[in-house]
Design brief:
This protein has a domain of 80 residues. The radius of gyration is 20 Å and the shape is elongated. The protein is mainly alpha-helical and 123 residues long. The protein starts with 12 loop residues before the first helix and ends in a 6-residue tail after the last helix. It has five helices and no strands.
């Protein structure tokens, strides 16, 4: 029986699977472009798992993927924290639990309409 995954996995997973009796993996090493694409997919996968479970283990998986993305893109935590602070100072945080229901405008706003059409907003 063959179970097809076609996804990015942690470095030790093939070794772990191959050490089990009756199990064997086939894997390959991705190039950088494919790796970035798969990290993005993995971030969505792990984020969805966190949303379903709200479990600290799933949050750790999200952070692991984020750190891998940061590493490949040469982004430092200090840089992220600096931008986070700047955005918090300008727009606030999420502490007040504000849920925006709608915005009423007198004129059509194409930019706003495009933003609302984004696929991730329909979750």
């Amino acid at each position: 029986m063959v179970y097809t995954y076609n996804k990015l996995v942690r470095d030790k997973i093939p070794e772990e699977i191959n050490s089990m009796e009756g199990r064997k993996t086939k894997f390959r090493i991705m190039d950088e472009n494919e790796y970035i694409k798969e990290l993005n997919r993995k971030l969505l996968e792990e984020s969805n798992e966190f949303v379903e479970e709200n479990d600290i283990e799933e949050l750790a998986d999200v952070m692991e993927v984020m750190e891998s993305i940061m590493k490949i893109k040469n982004i430092q935590w200090e840089e992220v924290k600096k931008i986070q602070t700047k955005k918090r100072d300008k727009k606030g945080s999420f502490d007040r639990k504000i849920y925006l229901e709608y915005v009423e405008e007198e004129k059509r706003n194409i930019k706003e309409e495009e933003e609302l059409k984004k696929k991730f907003r329909k979750l």
